[in-house]
Amino acid sequence: MGEEEMTLFLEEMANVRPLKNNTTSTIGEQKVSTQAQNLRRAQLQMSEQLAKLVTDVNMIESVEPDAMIEFKRDGVQDAVFHRFSRGGYPIKHEILLHQLKVQQAREVLYNEIQKSRQKGERSILVIHGKGANSKPIPALMKSFVASWLEQIDEVLAFHSAQTHHGGAGALYVMLAKSEQKRIETKEANHKGVNIR
After folding, report:
1. Which residues form the Smr domain (predicted)?
2. Residues paired with residue 173 on neighbouring β-strands, in sequence order
């Protein structure tokens, strides 16, 4: 390139600015981004769920400290519920709430239910205590727990425990299968169909 050509070239290129760095990300960066997005999505979902679980005592129905309580969603078979209410299913996890403040108990209950489902647990024990002397109402924690459990979609049923598991101070809680467990069950049942 001659001197005139170089001068002409530089004049033409005078207003040209370099492109910004290429913004394409590597697969590793995309994976980290996706994991972060999934975590934010899960946290947002948890916040929405927790917001549904009220902590205002005036917005729940109070129960008596010694009352036996139960709840069953449509679709839970009567025979299954009867066996469940008698403590007929193994309990692999206990959630202790009776010494927590209401706000703490709400978060612990919700988080522990989610963890239990992810582990594939279907029956857990929630110990809320009777709270005969609790303020501002008797059975404060028990009343909140009963209200919350009815509002958590993953809870299929609950029933006051048998005496050896805490009686009126505890609840058996039946959980829905996690999505992963549903897939595993479906695959296992599908494989069984082809066996002769």
Report:
1. 97-176
2. 124, 158
In total, how many domains does the chain have?
1
Is 18 part of any domain? no
Question: How far is C-alpha 147 from the chain's CA centre?
Answer: 16
Name the one residue in this structure whose structure tokens are 């008698």: 86
Three-state DSSP class for 187? helix
Given a cut of 80, whether residue 161 has pLDDT beyond it is yes
- Can you give the CATH number for the domain in which 97 is found? 3.30.1370.110
Is there a domain that residue 88 lies in? yes
- Quickly tell me which residue has 């048998």 as its tokens: 162
pTM strictly above 0.90: no
The better pLDDT of the pair 55, 191 is held by: 55
Q: How confident is the model at residue 194 (pLDDT cuts 50, 70, 90)?
A: low
Report the run of H or E that residue 3 belongs to, with start and end. helix 3-12
Given a contact cutoff of 8 angstroms between Cβ atoms, the answer to whether 124 and 161 are in contact is: no
- Whether 33 is in a domain gets the answer no
